[in-house]
Amino acid sequence: MKLPHLLSFPGIGADDMGYLSVVDQPGAPFEVKRVFWTYNTPETIVRGRHAHHRTEHVLLAVTGRIVVLTEMPNQELQTFVLDRPDVGVYIPPCCWHTMQYSAGAVQLTLASTPYAEADYIRTYAEFRRVCSSQSS
């Protein structure tokens, strides 16, 4: 079973001119099929609160700070603080996750599948029921 973990992407450039980070194959842990971003999220809102049957994600804080909490089917909890645009967190399938944003944070998400509502596990009870067999 794959676990959530941090990924570093190379920063090309210098302090006096700025940086560029690139995600390409084989640098990404999967073939990217969808890209989306989240912005203007109030600091009091917790987003996510779901898992996926098949989709893998990489979450990056393009700007600001994002606190990502993950829970695997075996109830292993991890906290990741994303506050650099060249570091992301890998979210595997069957990983319950939430995100909380600082003011002005922008999250870029790379996904392994096109959007499909049927891939979402929307309630915690369903997550525990569906994914518990994968905790071994």
Short summary:
InterPro entries: QdtA_cupin_dom, RmlC-like_jellyroll, RmlC_Cupin_sf. With 136 residues, the protein is mostly beta strands. Helix content is 6%, strand content 46%.
Describe the protein in words:
With 136 residues, the chain is mainly beta. The chain has a single domain, classed as Jelly Rolls. The chain has one helix and twelve strands, in the order ββββββββββββα. The protein has one helix spanning 124-131; strands at 5-8, 11-14, 18-21, 34-38, 46-52, 57-63, 66-71, 77-82, 87-91, 96-101, 106-111, 120-121. A five-stranded antiparallel beta sheet has the order 1-9-6-11-4, with no helix packed on it. The chain is globular and about 50 Å long. The model has no long low-confidence stretch (mean pLDDT 94).
- The number of strands is 12
Given as residue ranges, the uncertain stretches (5+ residues, pLDDT < 50) are none
Rough outline:
globular
CATH superfamily: Jelly Rolls
CATH class: Mainly Beta
Instruction: Give me the Rg, rounded.
Output: 15 Å
Class by alpha and beta content: mainly beta
Q: What spatial order of strands do you see in the largest sheet?
A: 1-9-6-11-4
InterPro entries: QdtA_cupin_dom, RmlC-like_jellyroll, RmlC_Cupin_sf
Protein name: dTDP-4-dehydrorhamnose 3,5-epimerase-like enzyme
Pfam family, one: FdtA
Domain Sugar 3,4-ketoisomerase QdtA cupin: 6-130
